[in-house]
Specification:
heterotrimer, A: 418 residues, D-Maltodextrin-Binding Protein, domain 2, four-stranded mixed beta sheet, B: 271 residues, mainly alpha, MetI-like fold, 13 helices, globular
């Protein structure tokens, strides 16, 4: 008798050990949504999901959130296994790779059937999600690069305001460089540094994307100047070697004159630097008003079993109401015109400095650069960026570096069939 | 010992080594309990403004208790699996049989397979077995490790043949020989298996990351993601979290190492 | 005399004719062998599922064009040819070799520590515990800790060096092309030192005291005894430590990924991080598979070479 109950107990235990938790909840329709590093929005999402479920009875929502570097690994494993999340929040250019391989649902038919949805969004931001004429994502939230400037350091160096040209930028940077202090720092992931080249009239690739266009005298000159300034201390070395914590932390310590970063940096820097207030920090646009966006959008996976339901969901999440709520809790621009206008107006009263930062995000959205929809974006970065680093850090001279970069990128392009 | 070497240089060298090993811990510990801006220069050697705010932050920021329980469950399964399966495999390897060298070579080459290259097939296989998002699925790849098999084997090899033969004459089955004769004589190997299997399973990051979907199945290391998030400036909490994850593995080692020592020293006197 | 090699047969059977006895012993042997295979079965099953099948999957994939969303097409040796031209691959290979080559440094330090801890001093247990304490730490946590230690502004290394007047400007360790890989290796050795020490300590403990005593009586000095007695008998342990050190070039994925991400440039890129990036960042699993196969062969070749140096026959692991 004892033995049998032991065996029964063991079998029951194995059962609980083996049964996947998420299968235990049964429901008629299930939506799974994978977001990119916004686990802190738990409260807001709880409310919003409840609202959606009330409007669509019988629907279960599974919310997954992964850190940026982990999301692609997770998502791709799920694709291979045939269980991709219905909706996925993607950042930067990784979506183009998935879209090109047929992994995302084309949203164009949905948008054509419901034209008022497209009208919600800032057209420049919406067009950032188009590949080969098809729209694959709806804007969730946006951040583009701007120029933060340390007013105190500017005053000390006798400078009036933010630079209006590349030459001024380099000049100001060199003026503010003294001992521990440096004049300029830029973030470098997701092509955030590209405005530095664009403001010198440099293009990365030809219009058809088939040939290299960046090996020009202007590019060589710009890169050489950056390298020289880096060596002299005007441009902080971390620009070329840091990722997120180092560059933002450096600016937050109050020893860097200008930081070229996107709006998300503001909150990180403010948290680290108690000296920051609207008297000491300014938010301006980079010379030439060029900026690189790093945006987030909602896409629907091809393997989704409920694409129509998924569409209703992302329509809901980007509606004026939800976008406003998101703006309020996250203080980030959503590309939803109504929500942004309302949010900014409120922010002006409560936190003028944050409002100033976010205002740059809707200014000059026609001058977005560094956001080419190429499926091989990651490889392109890998071929190009190391040479920029080499030149900026003085390991190669600018001319050789760009020539080597051209060789590497050409080799990459020649191997692409599309 | 016949020769008595001067003691102080040995102590000095060991103290220096201990210092080097402990300093990084201290540095992180002091950061996790200091209340000031951790990026301030020059950094303070003694933490100013000591408070446990960051630890509280960690406790509330993630479902620490749930993650902890998941980690414990998975590690316990992995340890039990390791001790059982490794002992069986090692016992088999102490005898000669046809195909044995093939098996040994197979095991050795299995060690050389990088985990990152196995993620997708491992996930698919686990899915086929219906073990996704479950404790057993999380623990299964860790339920046997080659290094630990050889640890058992080395220990079993040291057991005198006569003992085993006598047991066989007495009619003990092979199975019972493992558990009643070999294992009691291999306490240090068991301790080593337990320690290593626990550490490897407890600290595993990539596999649970890919494997778990539901939030309540996640293991403790995955809670780390919360603090590496770049939108938060809770870097002090990050270090508090590191300390909190470290504790169980360390505790287990401190507890199990007594057996470990006993096993080692008894092995020496056996000659 | 052949009786001594085989398992003992019950006395009753020995009374039968030699041929019949032979047949019975054969049946016993086969049954025994079957039993041993059963004992091996659970471990073998786990390795089959989680190591053997995946490596075969990689092998097959390395000869195909495939992406998670498409069908597989044969690619012949294309991926391998691409690797030959791939600068990043060669850099990663070189860095991996450096990491593997740094294992002996850790082993030598660990050996010194093991010898010290093994000597008859008070508090050896405490020292041993302290030195091992870095191993139970999550590798990601080790990476975070050392990233903090090497931090350019508030890291301890820079702070100490500047306070002691060794340098006047902080060194950006993890951002420098020359210092990045050594920094990662330092963190790596710190983490695994305790583990090496335990292995070597176990080996030291199995060397009988009598050997040392006899040699000492014969007039051999401590250094002489170390080279002629300790070291040769320690060979299997050293070999095991080296193999573990080699496998470290796999397991230090978390360390490199979190400390430097492979940068600056490709200064700290190792094969295993490159495999991960090719697969999960660039979605090129087929190319990642090719790199995996190269890495796998490299490891096996190194292990084999180390085995020969350690005195053949997998040290003490393959006693018949």
């Amino acid at each position: 008798m004892k033995r049998r109950s032991l065996v029964k107990g063991a079998l029951a235990a194995t059962g609980t050990l083996a049964a996947p938790a998420y299968l235990r909840a049964q429901s008629s329709k299930k939506l799974s949504i994978l977001t990119w590093n916004i686990a802190d929005q738990q409260e807001l999402f709880k409310v919003e999901f409840a609202e959606f479920k009330a409007a669509n009875p019988g629907v279960e929502i599974e919310w997954l959130d992964k850190k940026g570097p982990d999301l692609p690994a997770f998502y791709q494993t799920q694709i291979v296994a045939g269980t991709p999340p219905d909706i996925v929040d993607l950042q930067g250019m990784i979506w183009v790779d998935y879209a090109a391989k047929g992994g995302l649902v084309d949203l164009t038919p949905y948008l054509q059937a419901e034209p008022e949805v497209a009208k919600r969004f800032n057209p420049d931001y919406l067009s950032g999600w188009i590949y080969q004429g098809k729209t694959y994502l709806l804007p969730f939230y946006v951040a583009k690069s701007l120029l933060y400037w340390n007013k105190t350091m500017f005053k000390e160096a006798g400078l009036g305001g933010p630079p209006q040209s590349f030459a001024e930028l380099i000049g100001f940077a060199e003026k503010m460089a003294k001992a521990e202090k440096t004049g300029f720092l830029t973030l470098n992931f997701d092509w955030l540094y590209w405005p530095l080249f664009k403001m010198n009239g440099v293009e990365l690739l030809s219009a058809d994307g088939k040939k290299v266009a960046f090996n020009t005298p202007q590019a060589v000159d710009a890169l050489a100047q950056l390298a020289k300034a880096t060596e002299a201390g005007g441009v902080n070395k971390i620009s070329w070697t840091g990722r997120w914590v180092e560059p933002n932390g450096a600016f937050a310590s109050g020893t860097v004159g200008m930081l070229h970063a996107h709006s998300a940096s503001y909150f990180f820097v403010k948290g680290q630097g108690p000296w920051i207030n609207d008297q000491t920090l300014g938010a301006a646009e980079a010379p030439g008003f060029w900026s690189t966006p790093t945006n987030h959008g909602f896409a629907i996976s091809k393997g989704s079993k409920n694409p129509d339901l998924a569409w209703s969901f992302i329509k809901f999440m980007t509606s004026d109401k939800c976008a406003s709520a998101f703006f309020k809790t996250r203080s980030v621009l959503t590309a939803n015109i109504v929500a942004d206008k309302e949010g900014l107006a409120n922010l002006e009263k409560t936190e003028p400095l944050a409002a100033a930062v976010l205002r740059t995000q809707i200014a000059h959205t026609d001058k977005l650069t560094g956001n080419w929809p190429l499926p091989y974006d990651a490889e392109l970065k890998d071929a190009f960026w190391p040479e920029i680093q080499n030149a900026a850090l003085g390991r190669k001279d600018a001319k050789t570096a760009l020539a080597d970069a051209e060789k590497a990128v050409n080799r990459l392009l020649s191997r692409k069939k599309a | 010992m016949i020769h008595r070497y001067p003691r102080s240089p040995i102590h000095l060298a060991l103290i220096l080594a201990s210092f080097v090993m402990l300093v990084p811990f201290y540095w992180v510990l002091k950061t996790s309990v200091s209340g000031e801006n951790i990026y301030a220069y020059p950094p303070s050697i003694i933490p100013r403004n000591v408070n446990l705010f960051y630890y509280v932050d960690v406790w509330y920021a993630i479902p620490f208790a749930r993650y902890f329980m998941n980690s414990v469950a998975v590690s316990v399964i992995a340890v039990i699996g390791n001790v059982a399966f490794n002992a069986m495999a090692a016992y088999a390897l102490t005898h000669g049989f046809r195909g044995k060298s093939f098996v040994v070579l197979l095991f050795l080459s299995c060690m050389m397979v990088p985990f990152q290259a196995t993620i997708i097939p491992a996930y698919l296989i686990t899915g086929r077995l219906g073990l996704l998002d479950s404790w057993l699925g999380l623990a299964l790849p860790q339920c046997s490790t080659i290094i630990c098999i050889f640890v058992f084997k080395a220990s079993f090899d040291a057991v005198p043949r006569s003992l085993i033969d006598a047991a066989r004459i007495d009619g003990l089955s092979e199975w019972r020989i493992i558990w009643h004769i070999m294992m009691p004589l291999s306490k240090s190997a068991i301790a080593t298996n337990v320690i290593l299997a626990f550490i490897w399973s407890w600290n595993n990051f990539l596999w649970p990351l890919i494997m778990t979907r539901s939030a309540d199945m996640q293991t403790l290391p995955l809670g780390l993601a919360r603090f590496l998030s770049y939108q938060e400036d809770t870097t002090g909490a990050l270090y508090a979290f590191c300390i909190m994850v470290l504790a169980p593995g360390l505790l287990l080692f401190l507890l199990a190492q007594k057996e470990f020592i006993r096993g080692l020293t008894s092995g020496a006197t056996k000659g | 005399m052949v009786f001594l090699k085989e398992p003992m047969t019950p006395p009753a059977l020995r009374a039968t004719s030699p041929l019949r006895g032979e047949a019975i012993r054969l049946r016993h042997r086969t049954r025994r062998a079957l039993l041993y295979w059963c004992f091996l079965a659970p471990s073998l099953a786990i390795f089959l599922l989680y190591r053997i099948i995946p490596i075969v999957w990689n092998l097959v994939l390395s000869f195909q064009y495939w992406s998670p969303l498409g069908e597989a097409e044969p690619a012949g040796f294309d991926h391998y040819e691409d690797l030959l031209q791939d600068d990043v691959f060669w850099q990663a290979l070189w860095n991996t070799l450096i990491v593997i080559g740094s294992a002996p440094i850790g082993i030598v330090i660990a050996l010194a520590l093991a010898l010290l801890v093994n000597s008859d001093i008070r508090g050896r247990d405490v020292y041993r515990t302290i030195i091992f304490v870095s191993y139970p730490l999550m590798t990601v946590a080790v990476a975070i800790i050392w990233r903090w230690m090497f931090d350019e502004r508030v890291g301890l290394i820079n702070y100490a060096a500047r306070t002691l007047d060794l340098i006047d400007k902080p060194i950006p360790f993890l951002n420098s092309f020359t210092w990045a890989l050594p920094s990662v290796i330092v963190a790596n050795i710190w983490q695994i030192l305790g583990f090496y020490m335990i292995i070597l300590l176990t080996g030291l403990q199995t060397i009988p005291h009598e050997l040392h005593e006899a040699a000492a009586i014969d007039g051999a000095g401590p250094v002489h005894r170390f080279w002629r007695i300790t070291l040769p008998l320690l060979r299997p342990s050293i070999f095991l430590a080296f193999v573990i050190g080699m496998l470290n070039s796999i397991t230090s994925f978390d360390l490199v990924y979190v400390m430097t991400g492979g940068g600056p440039g490709r200064a700290t890129e190792i094969l295993v991080t490159y495999i991960y990036k090719l697969g999960f960042v660039q979605t090129k699993f087929d190319e990642a598979a090719a790199v995996t196969m190269v890495f796998f062969v490299l490891l096996i070749a190194t292990a084999w070479a180390a085995n020969r140096l350690a005195g053949g026959n997998v040290g003490a692991m393959d006693t018949e």
